[in-house]
Amino acid sequence: MLLSKRISVLSESLTIAISSKAKEMKAAGLDVISFSAGEPDFDTPEVIKNAVKSALDNGCGKYTPVPGTPEVLEAIATKLKRDNNLNYKPNQIITNVGAKHSLFNLFSCIINHGDEVIIPSPYWVSYPEIVKYCGGTPVIVETSEDNKFKLTANQIKSAITPKTRAIVLNSPSNPCGGVYSKAELEEIGKVLEGSDILVISDEIYEKLTYNGEFIAAAAISDDMFKRTITINGLSKCGAMPGWRFGYMASSIDELNKAVRKLQSQSTSNISSIVQAGAIPALLGEADANIEYMKSKFIERRDYAVKAINDIENLSVVCPDGAFYLFINCKNVEPDSMKFCQELLEKALVATVPGVGFGMDGYFRVSFACDLDSLKRGIERIAEFVKNYKK
Ligand code: PMP
Ligand code: GLU
């Protein structure tokens, strides 16, 4: 066989596959409304673009150290302290080609064959796939609408086995928008005390928290700081998805050394140009743009939640963060793949089936698009649902 066994277990990213299909259909002249994109529709702020322009004029084209330039690592440490009350030193931080790459590096360095990783479902599509690729076993723990799709400390307790290596937390979450409160994180922290289980805290939607306060998992206690690997980036909150800027921070020096070693043999440093552009974003110089983007997301969320809940047989829990609605369509069509395929073919609305996030009977709508498209798309969904025949 030509291909490795490792690659054969990996599925293609469904979110990317559907977004690409919607783009192709649009390019072919079809009037598709895409709710599949996991990226802000806002342009990258000027201050960031200008930083790149001046970096280019000042000859920033050389290799940088593998984890990043001293300036970008310092800027990340400053951001983590200022926004999240986290005391990471610059040498405990590594920049990567997007947070997906941070997770890829991380799982590659911590998983041995058969190690278990607890992942709450609905989950972002890539977590279980990367774990499987690295030889691990994803242990999927189903959450429910009643708890805004958040994992409870008791659920974690029941899922832990001697093989548990790590737990993935994603707050605010993709696809449900759940935000963990301080009390919830404290309870999770207590369950883990005395174990050597790592917490992988994906905080990429951090600044898009609409209700309640965003709390970083590592900020909960000394014990949580020691066991948590903080993952973040600028794809969502800096409106820079195509730039590919992510990072991980951890107090575990042995792990950081391993990730640097792996990266030194794969991508080396991330683009020097991107690092230069990231600095003003990390230092808060684009905060006004982010606040504006956030206010628009709130407006769209409020509109869309009401409009969806007004459609007979569809319902949605209001997300507290991120820019997705995870919509219950069980009363229309429990097979989410079939529902989304027909919605795309017949009504020209692209959405992502819940089954890709580990929960059938739901579909994901991204409201990272203008309000007018959101209105027109939801009208099409309403019409489609009204006429749906099983
Ligand atoms: N985590 C979550 C929850 C996401 O939705 C995404 C979106 N792609 C990522 C990580 C990865 O982001 P990126 O690689 O663009 O930094
Ligand atoms: N995270 C985004 C999404 O869920 C972007 C695509 C991806 O990387 O999965 O749609």
From TrEMBL:
Its EC number is 2.6.1.-. GO terms for biological process: amino acid metabolic process. It comes from Campylobacter devanensis. GO terms for molecular function: pyridoxal phosphate binding; transaminase activity. Its cofactor is pyridoxal 5'-phosphate. Signal peptide: none annotated. CDD domains: AAT_like. Residues 31-381 form the Aminotransferase class I/classII large domain. SUPFAM superfamilies: PLP-dependent transferases. It is an enzyme of class 2 (transferase). Keywords: Aminotransferase, Pyridoxal phosphate, Transferase. It comes from the Bacteria. This is Aspartate aminotransferase, aminotransferase, classes I and II. Belongs to the class-I pyridoxal-phosphate-dependent aminotransferase family.
